[in-house]
Amino acid sequence: MKDAFGLPQSLLVLGGTSEIALATARRLIARRTRTVWLAGRPSPALEQAAEQLRGHGADVHTVAFDALDPDSHETALGKVFAESDVDMVLLAFGILGDQARDEREPAWAVRVAQTNYTGAVSAALVSARALQTQGHGSLVVLSSTAGERARRSDFIYGSSKAGLDVFTQGLGDALYGTGVHVMLVRAGFVRSKMTAGLEETPLATTPEAVATAVELGLRRRSETVWVPGTLRVVMSALRHVPRGLFRRLPL
Amino acid sequence: MSADTAPVTVTVTGWGLTAPTAAHVIRPRTYEEAAAAVRACGVRGGIPRGLGRAYGDAAQNAGGAVLDMTGVDRIHAIDADGGTVLCDAGVSLHRLMEVLLPLGWFVPVTPGTRHVTVGGAIGADIHGRNHHVSGSFSRHVLSLELLTADGGIRTVSRGTPLFDATTGGMGLTGVILTATVRLLPVETSLLSVATERATDLDDLMARLTATDHRHRYSVAWIDLLARGAATGRAVLTRADHAPLDALPARARRAPLAFRTLQFPPVPAHLPQGLLGRTTVGLFNELRYRTAPRARTGRLQRISTLFHPLDGVPHWNRVHGRGGFVHYQVVVGRGQEDALRRIVRRISARRCPAFPAVLKRFGEAAPGWLSFPVPGWTLALDLPAGLPGLGAFLDELDEEVATAGGRVHLAKDSRVRPELLAAMYPRLDDFRALRAELDPRAVFTSDLSRRLAL
C-alpha cells in the first residue's frame, strides 16, 4: 500500500533497463519500496539492473516482457498482479529511433510507433485494469515534451509520444474515482544512454531529476509533472508559436 | 459515505485525507445484513468502518468491502442505577452523551471528538484526557458481541485472548456488533477547569508528574515552534466534573443539559499551506500569552473543553487537498530524554504542528495492539505536503522505537513496517490469532496490508 506521502511498497517497472526508471526505483527503495518487478526483454542488462537494485536492499524479480508483442502482455503482467498488490506501475519503455533512417525506411518508423504507442497502450490498459481491481495504485507514464509540438528533428518519436500523452490523459480521466492514480511525466531532454551522442536541447535534465519529480508528484497526487518544472511555461509558449516561425527556430 | 445495503464503489480516505483507495461501501442496518455482507466478502475482504475519524488507512480496504456500521445504531438498554449501557457498535459517543447526560451519566472515556462510534472506540482502544485515571476505552467495556469471519456471532468477555486482540485490534478480528459499557456518574454537564502555564518542557513534565493525580482530566497544549529556553513551553488544562453546588444559580436549573456549538463548515478545496510556520507561530504565541499563568474553577461545557474542533464540520480540510499526517507517539516512563530529543528536533525543524498536545498516560490496557503504555504521549498534526516530512518522521520513529515507544495505529498513515514488531511486542500473538480465527483473511484493511498486521 502507498503511505500518506504516496510512496509505494511495491513497484512494477515496464522497461526494466530504462535509466529513468532505475533512478526512480532507487529513490523509492530508499524510502518505502521493498518489492520491485523489472519487466523487459530478457537480457544481461535486465539482470544487471535487477542486481543493482538488490544492492539497494529491495527484493527484485525480473519479468519477461516485450512491448512489441501486445498479445503477451495480459499473461506476462497478469502473473505479477496475481502474485500480490502492485502499488505503482512505471511505464518507462520507449525507443528514440533514428529520425533520418526512420524516414528512409518506414519499417523502422513503425517500430518506434509500435513500441512507444501501441505497446504502451496495451501495457497501460492491462495494468490499469489490474490496478482498478485492487482498488488502488499509481500508473506513472513517461511521456516527453517532444510530443507537445512536432519538431523536424524527431517528429516520428514525438508523434508516438504525443499519442501516448493524449491516451494517458484520457485514461486518467477514465480512472478518476476508481482509486487508481494516473500520472503523466513530461520530461525534456534527459541525459541518458538513450540520448547519448545527441545534441542537448536547452533545459536538459537527468534521470535523477526525473525521479525526484516523480516522488514529488506521487506525494501531491499530481496528474501531470513537467521535468524540469520550467518546461511547462516554455512549452506552453512554444505551442503558440506560428508554424512558419517555429520551423526556423533552432530546436 | 452515504450508501445503502447495495454496495457502492467509493473512494475512501481516513480523516487525514491522504492515500485514497476505492472500496465497495455497504451500509448494513441489521446484524443479519452485516453477517451477510461478511459472508459475501470476496478475495479482497472487508473491514468495518465507523465515522471515519481514524486519521490513516485503518478503515479503508482497497478493492474490497467497507462495512459502514453507522446504520447499526440502536441503544438497547441503559442501567440508570448501575451505570452501564448496552448499545450497537454504530452508536456514536455524541449520541450516547445526548441520551446519557440527562440521566446523570457520562461516557467513561472521550477522545478529542464525539463523532466516533462505540465500535471504533473499542477497535482503536481510544484514550482521552483522563487516561492517567481511567485508562483507555476498553477498560470500561464489560463484554461485546463480535461478528467473526465465518459469519457467526460470538460473545466476547473480558480476560479472553479474543477480547484482548479485539480491543485495539483495528477491526481485524471481526465486526463488533454490540458492547456493554460501564459509565461514569456526573452531577452536572459542566467541568471545572484549571489552567496553568509551563515555561518549558521540563517544567511541563514536572508539573504533570506532580499534580496530574489530583484531576480526572489533564492535557497540555504544547508550542512546538518555540525555541531555545522556551522549547516545549505549554499551557496545561486540568478539569473535573463540576459538582452541583459549584454551579451558579442559573445553571443549576438545567445542570445536565448537553449543549454543543456549531460553526459553518470548512470549505472544500482550500489551498495548501494555509497553516504554515507564520500562521501557526502567531497562533501559538497568542495562545501562550493569553493563557492565564494559573487559574482554577472556570466552568466549561463538555463540548467546549473536550471537543472544540467538533464545532467546525470538516475541519480536516483546513490543510488543503494534500491532507495531513497525525503523528502520535508514546514513550515509556523513564524515557524522558527521548521525549526531550523528539521535541527538540521538531522545534529545531520549525514544523508547523497544529495542534500539538502532550499527555501523561496511566496504566496500559491488556489489548495486544492497544496504544497507551505508562509514559508520555505526544500528538501533532502536520500538513502532508511538508517537504521531507516522511524522512523526518522516520527518524523520529527510530528514536521512539529505540526508547521502547510506539506509534498509534489508528492515527498512523506512514510508519515503516519493519519497526512495528519492536513497537508492539504482542504483534506475533495478534497475527497468530488472526491466522487461526480468520484463515482466509476476510478482515483486511489498507492498514493491515501496509503493515502486514
Automatic annotation (TrEMBL), chain A:
SUPFAM superfamilies: NAD(P)-binding Rossmann-fold domains (SSF51735)
InterPro entries cross-referenced by the UniProt entry: NAD(P)-bd_dom_sf, Sc_DH/Rdtase_CS, SDR_fam
Example of a GO MF term: oxidoreductase activity
One Pfam family this sequence matches: adh_short
Gene3D superfamilies: NAD(P)-binding Rossmann-like Domain
Keyword Translocase part of the UniProt annotation: no
Keywords attached to this entry: Oxidoreductase
Enzyme Commission (EC) number: 1.1.1.333
Domain of life: Bacteria
Recorded family membership: Belongs to the short-chain dehydrogenases/reductases (SDR) family.
The protein's name in its UniProt record: Decaprenylphospho-beta-D-erythro-pentofuranosid-2-ulose 2-reductase
Taxonomic source organism: Streptomyces guryensis
Taxonomic lineage from the root: Bacteria, Bacillati, Actinomycetota, Actinomycetes, Kitasatosporales
UniProtKB/TrEMBL annotation, chain B:
InterPro entries: ALO_C (IPR007173), FAD-bd_PCMH (IPR016166), FAD-bd_PCMH-like_sf (IPR036318), FAD-bd_PCMH_sub2 (IPR016169), FAD_lactone_oxidase-like (IPR010031), Oxid_FAD_bind_N (IPR006094), Vanillyl_alc_oxidase_C-sub2 (IPR016171)
Pfam families: ALO, FAD_binding_4
Gene3D superfamilies xrefs: 3.30.465.10, Vanillyl-alcohol Oxidase, Chain A, domain 4
Keywords tagged on the record: Oxidoreductase
The organism's place on the tree of life at top rank: Bacteria
Gene Ontology annotations for the cellular component aspect, listed alphabetically: membrane
Nuclease is among the record's keywords: no
Membrane-spanning ranges: none
Identification of the protein by name: FAD-binding oxidoreductase
GO MF annotations in UniProt: D-arabinono-1,4-lactone oxidase activity; FAD binding
PROSITE patterns in alphabetical order: FAD_PCMH
Sequence ranges assigned to domain FAD-binding PCMH-type in this UniProt record: 18-186
